[in-house]
Amino acid sequence: MAPRSSPAHCEVRVAHQQAPVVPNTKGLPALPIELLLEIVSYFPSVPIPTSIFFHCSQLCLERIEVLQALSQMCRSLRSVFLPLMWQRIEVGVTSYIYSDDMRRPGYLPWKKDVATELVRQLEIVTIRDPTLAAYVKIVSVVLTDYCSKAVFREFVRCLALFPNLHTMQILGAGGSLGRDLTAAFAGRTFPTVRTLIVQSFASAILKACPHVKSVTSASGPNPLMFYDIARYCPDVEELRGFSHIEDESQFQGNFFQTMRKHFPKTRVIVLYGPKILSNRTRQELAQFPALQRIEIVVHSYEWKPPIKTFLKQAEEVLRDLDALFEKLPSNLHTWRIPENSTEAEEKIWRDLHEVFRDAVLVMLFRPKRQMMQDMLGDSVDSTTLFVMRDVSVSTSSDKFPSESALASCSARASENPVGDIVDMLMQVLEGLALIHSNNVAHRDAFRDNFVVQWHPESLRPMKISPSRPRVYLIDFEVAIDFPPECPADECVCTGYPIGRSFGDLEAYTRPHAPELGNHTVSSN
């Protein structure tokens, strides 16, 4: 028989159960989220990209175990570390595989361990707790030929349940992977994937990711894979894994011409140092209209004078990247926030007028202006895009990645408050330019919908340099997503952004734009 509690003990227990739940304001949960994430960032994860099946061994396992433990400590820490824990599906590291005793009998069936771990993680985020699927943004897995048909079908089924998936790194070991992958990915499409790291057997994966921007060949410069990318992924801007162009004869000496033909949007080119022909390579690179970065793969024993010469020529090819930065005042590092006077503010903007004018010309796509016909309606029949406020302190930059030359120069703008403001305004324009280029009109791009998450570089409490301010555009509640086939001059919104939270004009509480007050309308 259970012992009886005294009335006093019962009262204490009841009072404890009825006590209000308050946030934990002491210890680890009281630290700022940025500091918690900084601590966790010192635990390495599987590198992306990589061609090594089992990378970092126990170090990667430590990160997973730490995140799992922290997410189970308390409610406040769970809200931070649970999304971070399931942000990545990583399969290829298990304590069973990484035993130091490589000769033990259990070492051989490592393929079974990898397949079992993959199915276990997929089951957690799709069956046991489907709400976790929204956290998954990166999938880095090793596929094997162990029960490949069943495992691949389940793998592809779960990929379709990840709405925010943007990066896939799929490596493999086994002879029948290509055939089984083709069957599993048949008829599937993953439009959110922007970064892909695969091997030569992954033609079916390339076909399933038509909007990918960056593709890395983990098998080296395979010509067949090159043409598969050209056939299925027309929007590629970054091609990696083809730097060792030792078999250039397969392209009949026209590799760069072929690349320009199939990938006109190329922003990043990776070259192998010893294969660089200085003058010819420079001439070829100068013909890429969107080129922003040149990476050279070279070993210390291969460092030769021709490569040094090419570096100078490459600087000339990329000279436009720094053109905007060079227009900033040379003494910008001495500027401070102006006094509360119109004259002081106007002086700053007069000095920076040329910079912002050129930034708008370079980045900002502006649809054609129209006179307002209907203050409460849209001139184009389109679908309203509902996007929840999702400001993640670690990966929100994936929402609007940098796409222009400003990405290279804004990080060096200055080390003071005025420079921080310049940097933030450039990012604002860059974000608007990106959504406009994708036929999306925000319609509510006012001050409160630009969120800044930063440690300003002008504030240096430590010797470690803080990060630049980072600006995120949020709240797509009343945004308009124009069809891809809609011409640019017809992607125009008119009137106030009425809808959802603002049912009518009387409920609209945002600052009124001057052009609407004058009965005219422009793009957002």
Automatic annotation (TrEMBL):
Tell me where on the tree of life, at the top rank, the source sits.
Answer: Eukaryota
Q: Organism source for this protein?
A: Hypsizygus marmoreus
Question: What is this protein's record name?
Answer: Protein kinase domain-containing protein
